[in-house]
Specification:
Layout lengths: L1 E6 L3 E7 L5 E8 L3 H20 L5 E6 L2 E2 L5 E5 L4 E5 H9 L3 E5 H16 L4 H6 L1 E6 L3 E7 L2 E2 L30 H5 L1 H8 L6 H10 L5 H29 L3 E5 L7 H16 L2 H6 L5 E3 L6 H7 L1 H4 L9
Parallel strand pairs: 1-4, 4-8, 9-12, 12-13
Antiparallel strand pairs: 1-2, 2-3, 5-6, 6-7, 9-10, 10-11
Helix pairs in contact: 3-11, 7-8, 8-9
Length: 319
């Protein structure tokens, strides 16, 4: 039984897969802060999901935020977890006595998204094999790439880190020190900071303010500016992913995709407009390559469970 985990700053999600690749158990539990807390959360999640599945894990895959040198199992700079550097694979593997793989959470989600897409639409397997990008739109912006059925990590594991690609030198200041990064335009945290209005869901509040009649025209205009920047940033990310890797599909996931068509429709429109003055871009049909990850899909945990398979064993088709 394969177990996969998506370890986030607030919650850890775990899934268990049987020999046919079907999800037989799925649990969520809080993530504790700091190295010891993260390890304790991982071990508790593995135990809980194994109990629900009625079996023992034969392998464990872990997706988590931060920088990971491919094949090392060491995570660093996981700020939201309170982890500076931690050999997660070694510590968890020693405790569980099973093979443990560790991967960046967005890259794990890319692998999971490709498998989910192939399972949901067998006719789409060709697209997934030739190229799929998973674009995570959440607190920040990052992407994972699946080429030929395998994760493309790059020489140092940085493939897909497009959030800090500047697309507007005169744009808003990014936390990385540049101006006009994709993340500064389309990242949830950046939008919330620029919005400067108290709201439980700042990005949704921005869209609501644009759509509703508001007496304060200045507020509405500010909301429209932020929404347009978000759309511009996502459209730029899609163009970058297609133009660098020529992926057939850009799968959108992450918290901001809860906006659904309110986000996707204007992004598609922006991509079509970019083709109006460029026959080359028009020929790429960028707007037709966007898909939304189904709401609630455990893509990162699923992809993490399949890491061992992706590294050389047979890849399962999820049932």
């Amino acid at each position: 039984m394969r177990v996969g985990l998506d370890v986030g700053g607030t919650k850890t999600e775990a899934v268990a897969l049987d020999d046919e690749g079907s999800v037989v158990a799925r649990v969520r539990r809080p993530t504790a802060f700091g190295p010891d807390g993260v390890i304790a959360s991982i071990l508790a999640a593995v135990e809980e999901v194994s109990t629900h599945a009625g079996g023992l894990a034969t392998s464990v895959g872990i997706g988590m935020p931060g920088q990971i040198v491919p094949g090392s199992g060491v995570i660093s700079h996981a700020v939201n977890l309170g982890v500076r550097s931690l050999d997660v694979a070694a510590v968890v593997g020693a405790d569980l006595a099973v093979p443990v793989d560790v991967e960046n959470d967005v890259k794990a989600a890319a692998l999971g998204a490709a498998v989910l897409r192939r399972s949901a639409s067998p006719g789409a397997s060709g697209a997934a094999e030739s190229g799929l990008a998973y674009l995570n739109l959440g607190t920040g912006v990052a992407a994972g790439l699946v080429i030929g059925g395998d994760l493309w990590r790059g020489s140092r594991g940085a493939a897909g880190e497009i959030g800090h690609l500047s697309v507007d030198p005169a744009g808003p200041r990014c936390g990385c020190g540049q101006r006009g990064c994709i993340e500064a335009l389309a990242g949830g945290r950046a939008i919330a900071e620029r919005w400067e209005r108290p709201a439980a869901l700042p990005v949704a509040d921005v869209f609501d303010c644009v759509d509703e009649e508001r007496p304060d025209s200045a507020v509405r205009e500010r909301a429209r500016e932020l929404r347009d920047d978000l759309v511009r940033g996502v459209a730029a990310a899609v163009r970058v992913l297609v133009l660098t890797a020529d992926v057939d599909v850009v799968m959108l996931g992450g918290g901001l995709t809860a906006l659904g068509d309110r986000l996707v429709a204007p992004v598609r429109a922006a991509l079509r407009r970019s083709g109006e003055t460029s026959p080359f871009l028009r020929s790429l049909h960028l707007d037709e390559r966007i898909e939304l990850l189904p709401t609630g899909s455990p893509a990162a945990a699923l992809g993490a469970a399949l890491l061992g398979a992706e590294r050389g064993e047979e890849v399962l088709t999820v049932g």
